[in-house]
Amino acid sequence: MDFRGSHIISVKQFERQDVERVFEVANTMEPYAQRRKITKSLEGAILGNMFFEPSTRTRVSFGCAFNLLGGHVRETTDVETSSITKGESLYDTARVISGYSDVIVMRYPKANSVAEFAKASRVPVINGGDGSNEHPSQALLDL
User: Fold this and answer.
1) What is the pLDDT of residues 55-73, one digit of tens each?
2) What is the residue extent of each domain of the chain?
3) What is the torsional sign of CA 120, 75, 112, 136?
4) Contact 138/58 with Cβ under 8 angstroms?
5) Contact indicator for 54, 79 with CB cutoff of 8 Å
6) This prediction's pTM
7) 58 is a catalytic site residue
């Protein structure tokens, strides 16, 4: 599957060959992760890191990876500092935030909330965890 421009909401989207391809690409990125090589391949790109539930490893790892590839990260780490607290829907939040981002990683405590958010997003959304439902990046890491 070609994931470019696609939402990653569920580990069920991945066939075995997709997982193998992710690992192949990850292996080629090692020199950048170890800071032996520098790239600016994401220069000018913005990651919207939206974590409405506590996270350290997932939030920081996505942000660091994006920075190491030359991109910029904008974070929202508390639902109380977002317009969701004022009653804004996930749909409306997605429409606004996706206008400022090239990709969004989202964690939200309610099951299926990231899929709901992704339906309204103009850019790809990666599920960083939606309650007890899914956490595809963690599933890949576990493999």
Assistant:
1) 899 999 999 999 999 999 9
2) 12-21+41-142
3) positive
4) yes
5) no
6) 0.91
7) yes
Name the residue with tokens 């990666």.
Answer: 126
Active-site position among 7, 59, 93, 107: 107
Domain 12-21+41-142 has CATH 3.40.50.1370: yes
Choice among 7, 58, 59, 93 that is catalytic: 58
Residue 77 is a catalytic residue: no
- Candidate list 12, 35, 36, 86, residue with the active-site label: 86
Token digits of residue 72: 């910029």
135 is catalytic: yes
Which is catalytic among the residues 37, 39, 40, 57? 57
Give Cβ neighbours of residue 83 (< 8 Å, ≥ 6 apart): 92, 93
